[in-house]
Amino acid sequence: MATQQEQAYSSLENAAMPLPQSLKDAPKTEKEPAVILCIGMAGSGKSTFMQRLTASIHSAKKTPYVVNLDPAVGKLPFGCNIDIQDVVNYKQVMKQYGLGPNGGIITSLNLFTTKFDQVLDLIGKRSKELDYVVFDTPGQIEIFTWSASGQIITDTLATLHPTVLAYIIDTPRSSSPATFISNMMYALSILYKTKLPMILVFNKCDVVDASFAREWMTDFESFQEAVRGDEESGYMGSLVGSMGLVLEEFYNALKVVSVSAVTGAGMDDFFTAVDEAVSEYKTDYRPAMEKKIFDKKEALKKSREENLSKLMKDMEVGGGAGSKKDTSTDDFYDDDGADDDDEFNVSLEDRSTNSAGEEASFKRFLEKAAK
Ligand SMILES: Nc1nc2c(ncn2[C@@H]2O[C@H](COP(=O)(O)OP(=O)(O)OP(=O)(O)O)[C@@H](O)[C@H]2O)c(=O)[nH]1
């Protein structure tokens, strides 16, 4: 039976639309693992949630593939297939580039992202047997709002697999309207930057129930009332109040679940939300992405043809030696898709089959980077 991906391809082909080469080359798997990217502020409970998530996947007799993108997490509380810490030592990055902890983490991720294609290859090799690919990320969520590495990671993953963002929120720390709104603004920026389906995961519900947040998201008056009664908001009150109004439409685009990573409460709801988000990806995101890639390729082709005909004209005018030569675009453009830049040719290894020595691996990485 044809997979969703194959059906999507054939519907494009049936529409007599040439298929973009990059999509033709994408692995067509029987089973498509869903990618879950866990994003959230420092201390929101991402790593604890990852631990709960992988445990729940295993107990449902499904197969996860786990990737850690947080270079500063130290000892991981969950089993992991690919760990950025095996490749980049963020303390040495800080030293080498004269950076503080935040800069060190972001730069480490940027360095790692230069070889993200290897991560995709490792996932691709096992994708037939996988149900979920889950990513832990650093608490520096600006990575996903303005950094290039965040965009490369989300874009490349979403090109190949149904990808869902799980935005983890520290519920007890979001119980004031001002902190709640600032958290929502971050989530909004990430949503609009990536355009991927997003699940708001109100974590730590064993400490504070998230019903207040659901109410604020569905009943504007109740949020306004909370703002009026909140001394912390102070002079910010009117700004926070108007933000609440602006965000109403954004709330409609989200799935909301409350969980406790510690007790495991709410995980069933989370997986239901993931299923819904995957369907949303397939009906909304993937067709839009395929059209975007197609349009980009067409624009590139057009500009190449224009440049070529300009060049041919110039050669004719100048009577250049090659003016009569049959020249195709292939002679001017290296279009074999191969990566000619071998500067950072670092080989990532799947920890489940081989765990590289961190020091040696990082030394290798820096040596290649310095070339
Ligand atoms: N009560 C309770 N505590 C939690 C829950 N989830 C996480 N925590 C606690 O919150 C703290 C932060 O959790 P982490 O999982 O390290 O959070 P993180 O988002 O990965 O933090 P960074 O690595 O700094 O970005 C720890 O003390 C956890 O034990 C939860 O569901 N309930």
From TrEMBL:
Function: Small GTPase required for proper nuclear import of RNA polymerase II (RNAPII). May act at an RNAP assembly step prior to nuclear import.
Keywords from the UniProt entry: Cytoplasm, GTP-binding, Hydrolase, Nucleotide-binding, Phosphoprotein
Region (Disordered): 311-359
PANTHER family according to UniProt: GPN-LOOP GTPASE 1, XPA-BINDING PROTEIN 1-RELATED
InterPro entries referenced in this protein's UniProt entry, alphabetically: Gpn, Gpn1/Npa3/XAB1, P-loop_NTPase
EC id: 3.6.5.-
Key word GTP-binding present: yes
Biased segments, Acidic residues type: 329-344
Protein family (similarity comment): Belongs to the GPN-loop GTPase family.
CDD domains: GPN1 (cd17870)
Enzyme class at the top of the EC tree: hydrolase
Subcellular location: Cytoplasm; Nucleus
Name of the featured protein: GPN-loop GTPase
GO cellular component entries: cytoplasm; nucleus
Key word Lipid metabolism present: no
Coiled coil regions in record: none
Gene3D superfamilies per the UniProt record, alphabetical: P-loop containing nucleotide triphosphate hydrolases (3.40.50.300)
Pfam families, per the entry: ATP_bind_1
GO molecular function terms attached to this record: GTP binding; GTPase activity
Record note on quaternary structure: Binds to RNA polymerase II.
